[in-house]
Amino acid sequence: MTSFAGFPSGKNPYVPVPEVFFRSLLPEIEDVAELKVTLHLFWLLAQKRGEPRCVSEPELLGDRVLLKSLKRRGDPRPPEERVRQGLEKAVARGTVLRVYLKVLGDDGSEDEVVGWYFFNTARSRRVVAELQGSELIPVRLLDVGQHRFAPEHGQRQSQSQGQGQGGDPSPSPAATALARVGHNQTQHLHIEIERPNIFVLYEQNIGLLSPLIADELRDAAERYPPEWVEAAFREAVEHNKRNWRYIRAILRRWETEGR
């Protein structure tokens, strides 16, 4: 263990963390990767400009501070895998929201899909709801200029996130959203909203998984369409019937009678 020399004197930047994190989230978080990723997101998003503030998965996977914090002696897994583990748990808990963006080239060809993460705030929920309303939208809602594709993808490098010319803060996402696509005003982003899997739905709406229930959920996920599973959970919650037996009955009825 490296000894900490103490906090430096003078002015030190502070990172705002909502009180609800300590009251509601911290007592429930047991996984170290989830805790470290969540705290790092507070620090990282506090440095962003504009609204809503978000960060891409490639940016997180390339963050040396985060990777160092998740590298554990004796653990053969790469720290990037622990970053993904922490993100998955934070998404499942509802701390953060995730959307996927697929950049379409000028000729209609598809480039890589990039995951973007927001804290689960009212503003972010409105943005995600707007994204869900359309499959093809102009590049305007997210500051995609902060993401750089690897050179082997042949992509033009974007403007860097942070300070602009003359030290001015970066403009808002609405003003700089076309930075990612250069001067091409017609390029669009294809929005793919992640569908929560059946295990996430169960934990969010019913409770902790047992091995027996996990096997039943896995079978149901293979047997029924994802939209049926989501709708069955939604119907159970609306009727205050938060148990797997009720949800399973709904799915079996739809299978027999049609939805």
Short description:
With 259 residues, this protein is of the alpha+beta class. 43% of the residues lie in helices and 12% in strands.
CA(first)-CA(last) distance = 59 Å
Largest sheet: 5 strands, antiparallel
State the assembly state of the protein chains. single chain
How does the helix and strand content classify structurally? alpha+beta
- Please count the helical segments: 11
- Low-pLDDT segments: 134-141, 143-189
Beta-strand content bin: 5-15%
Q: What's the helical proportion of residues?
A: 40-55%
Mean pLDDT over all positions:
74
Taken from the alpha-carbon principal axes, the silhouette is elongated
- H-E order: HHEHHHEEHEHEHHHH
Query: How many beta strands in the DSSP annotation?
Result: 5
| Radius of gyration of CA atoms, rounded to a whole number | 21 Å
Biggest sheet: strand arrangement: 1-3-2-5-4
Descriptive terms for the model:
259 residues; alpha+beta; five-stranded antiparallel β-sheet; 11 helices; 43% helix; elongated
